[in-house]
Amino acid sequence: xxxxxxxxxxxxxxxxxxxxxxxxxxxxxxxxxxxxxxxxxxxxxxxxxxxxxxxxxxxxxxxxxxxxxxxxxxxxxxxxxxxxxxxxxxxxxxxxxxxxxxxxxxxxxxxxxxxxxxxxxxxxxxxxxxxxxxxxxxxxxxxxxxxxxxxxxxxxxxxxxxxxxxxxxxxxxxxxxxxxxxxxxxxxxxxxxxxxxxxxxxxxxxxxxxxxxxxxxxxxxxxxxxxxxxxxxxxxxxxxxxxxxxxxxxxxxxxxxxxxxxxxxxxxxxxxxxxxxxxxxxxxxxxxxxxxxxxxxxxxxxxxxxxxxx
Amino acid sequence: xxxxxxxxxxxxxxxxxxxxxxxxxxxxxxxxxxxxxxxxxxxxxxxxxxxxxxxxxxxxxxxxxxxxxxxxxxxxxxxxxxxxxxxxxxxxxxxxxxxxxxxxxxxxxxxxxxxxxxxxxxxxxxxxxxxxxxxxxxxxxxxxxxxxxxxxxxxxxxxxxxxxxxxxxxxxxxxxxxxxxxxxxxxxxxxxxxxxxxxxxxxxxxxxxxxxxxxxxxxxxxxxxxxxxxxxxxxxxxxxxxxxxxxxxxxxxxxxxxxxxxxxxxxxxxxxxxxx
Lengths: 310, 276
Description:
heterodimer, A: alpha/beta, Alpha-Beta Plaits, B: globular
């Protein structure tokens, strides 16, 4: 019984005060989250932050201790099958595949979803057409990931849930994964993309939520996150020699959060506008600047800024 | 529909089990040997009359052990193993319910075990019938039908136990524990029940109701149930010789029905509420 298609502009994922405890351990604490239909949403957090628990609740693999989860306008716990009919999933930490070939796995999904996709076209799209007739149990990690992505794409789902999808993929595979995410978003699908790697999420997502120790600490665009956190990462200034007292001078600059030496380099954690001042202070101290490298805020920096753990 | 899809996948996966093939070859050879021995050495074994019904009982004698051990080997991980490895998340990310998965496992593994069981019995029956020059369709048909029911029942018990836990080591303890208590040690359990009911001493004569207790193990229920389906008046060793509402070989079928449904229902109840 196919559910009625959902009008655009509706909410794809809606978590209301979701809490999940296992025994005495709290995995999620009062999470409120709304993902709009058609959005590419990045779900960021270190390993163990509760990302997979959240996805488990969306798919009814785990039941919330308190709160409510709605997916595509349906209750995640009571309308499970209807949710899964319209959702494509690439789970994390799934076990070994069965003895069926790759193509049979895709066919199994097509049958389960009552879809009419062409298994070969799907495997072509995710780059494992050459291995279609081999038992999936012999696939490498990357090939398994490509097969699972293919299975998630069956029946053009309204919602794609990708849990750490780039695990085991080489850079080329990760790029193809991003292209497919873009294509799916262009088609109108909502994509919920979890990762612990900021760059993965940055490249594809409209908005990002940061989960830390079971609590949603921020939901914003990546630029918005950077701005709000006021941190843009590190700059490394390589000098011919490091003058005495330089570190203290740099630390005194407004907008610099930290400064240390690393060989002939000074590493400063600072906001963008302060970077020029760091270089100026260095030159004033009589050192010759040989090289400057800057890096944008890492996920760790963002976490630190949001969780006060700097 | 969903159940059948899961069953089909499960059947294909389970066929790769080497232990299954080893036990199956052993069982088929054993069946052939039993049929040959029954047809050729009847007198030496002290059997008065060589009949096709007798052949069926003789073949059935090996079913209890083969089916129970093989069912545990191929099915104790059915749910627990998939939960432990995370494979179940693949199945349950598709529009399958947990009930589909559980029933699909029962069907898939039943088919896996039914194939060698039925081939072994059919081969033994064919060889014995040819050697004896007598072919009893009804008796051998009853044996095959009863064996099929027994296979599904045992798989259902083991899958039900497997659904109670997400750990394969706990699942192996549960299923082996079940086998020890309900098959291997049941004679002692039965004695213990009589001893308890008789005020902590053994009576000089066993009460009639011990027949009921003795039918509790699935393999005993299988043997008793088989006599209900068998044509003719061969008095089986297990036939009750007293009057009571339960003193009928049909009791075996009732007990098998209990084992078919109850452990699986309990397993489903736990599995449907579990976080996987």
